[in-house]
TrEMBL record:
Any one GO CC term of the record: extracellular matrix
Name recorded for this polypeptide: Matrix metallopeptidase 19
Protein residues bound to Ca(2+) 3: D83, G84
Cofactor binding remark: Binds 2 Zn(2+) ions per subunit.
Residue positions binding Ca(2+) 5: I161, A205
PROSITE patterns, A to Z: HEMOPEXIN, HEMOPEXIN_2
Organism whose genome encodes this protein: Hucho hucho
Domain Peptidase metallopeptidase: 21-122
Repeat (Hemopexin) residue spans along the chain: 199-245, 291-336
Amino acid sequence: MRQPLCGIEDPFNQQTLMYRVLGYWRKRSLTWRIYNYTPDMPKSETKRAIRSAFKYWSDVAPLSFREVEYGRADIRISFHSADGPDTIGLESAMMVPLYTGYLNNFCLHPNDVKYIQATVGKKSKHGTSVPVEPTVTLPTDSLPDAEGDIPDPCTAKLDPIMLGPWRKTFAFSGDYVWMVSDMGHNAPMKIDRLWMGLPGNLSAAVYSQRTNKTYFFKGDKVWRYTSFLLDYGYPKELKGLPPNIDATLYLEKNKKLVFFKVVEHNTWDELRSSNLNVHPKPLSNLFTGVPTSPDVAFTWTNGKIYFLKRDKYWRVNRLLSVDKGYPLNTRGKQTP
């Protein structure tokens, strides 16, 4: 449940965050089921509120929603106390899971309408769908210079991208960060609201699923966080790695961190050594077919690794080889 602005799945441009819609939902008749109820509302009121919420979507898109009481449903609803971190940074779209009180004459946020219509089409007067052709726009400006200006995730120049805590993908641009999923993204927020003390304009970022540590790199310094708290003694001077590394990622295959600089890479096993001074090796020794000096490298939630350089991107499979048909030009269309 994140505020969507642009479609996304197979994703990005090194200068602009291109969220592409790679197809439409094939299923327009959706079922829903409540697995448990909130103690704060009668069951009938809960169902009425859910039906009302679905109607906002069916009014603008060719969707129908039907309740089922048994079996598997497309939409599964349950209520829990203290549900977690997804409220961070989310503001005005209906997909925000933070209750802000009753709003008179509520209507969907325009961004929500754009997303759902780009995904399933517009609803015509006769109830049929009108396909919406997704577009990719090229950037006309760099990041805004004025203090306080918030970058548009669809046109912002990217710094690192990483698969981070909560298995969320974080995209960084200047002093801002936002979470991305295949459903869209939330509103940009200042980086130091999530990671206190962390500067903007980062050169690289990586989260280790092995140790739950997040590393950020800028110039000749490294910051390390556990969850979102800065570890004692950090930031530190970066030793054993060249300054301003190109990119870094966590490699699930060997549970190691990989750092990229020009034509070389360094592989670091956190549990075997606390020293980052590892001998660099040719990039081609680890990956087949990827570019040298990548602008961005990251793992997507589907396990695929992506490399971005200028106006092209490469998708890497679990064998660490570039998938057939890549690289693709970010200005062209892509098929899933």
